[in-house]
């Protein structure tokens, strides 16, 4: 399992490692794909200061309200299908 680091500094700056993609972003929501799942950053005035997918690193500034992990998509789809097929 690859490890990653999420560092939130004074609720104004977030650094995340092991990032493979930015699915979407606006000033209130940033959806990141990590090697082992996803991360949702919510807040106000959010902007991506630096994105380096080769290094797998992103730097986000703004007023950070929350950071929430999500499961990998393949795990979510299997869980969703199980619920439907019951």
Compute the gyration radius: what is it?
14 Å
- CATH class term: Mainly Beta
Largest sheet: 6 strands, antiparallel
Global outline: globular
Spatial strand sequence of the major β-sheet: 1-2-6-5-4-3
Q: What string gives the helices and strands in order?
A: EEEEEEH
Q: What is the number of domains? A: 1
Strand percentage, roughly?
Answer: over 45%
Poorly predicted residue ranges: 80-86
- Report the span from N to C terminus: 31 Å
What is CATH's topology name?
A: Immunoglobulin-like
**Class of secondary structure makeup:** alpha+beta
Compute the number of strand runs.
6
Helix content class: 10-25%
Examine the secondary-structure arrangement and name the CATH architecture. Answer: Sandwich
Average per-residue pLDDT, rounded, comes to 86
- In DSSP terms (H or I, runs of 4 or more residues), the helix count works out at 1
């Amino acid at each position: 399992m690859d490890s990653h680091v999420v560092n939130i500094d004074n609720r104004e700056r977030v650094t995340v490692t092991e990032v493979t993609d930015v699915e979407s972003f606006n000033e209130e929501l940033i959806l990141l794909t990590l090697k082992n799942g996803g991360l949702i950053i919510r807040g106000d005035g959010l902007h991506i200061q630096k994105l380096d997918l080769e290094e797998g690193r992103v730097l986000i500034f703004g007023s950070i309200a929350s950071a929430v992990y999500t499961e990998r998509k393949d795990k979510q789809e299997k869980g969703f299908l199980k619920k439907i097929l019951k």
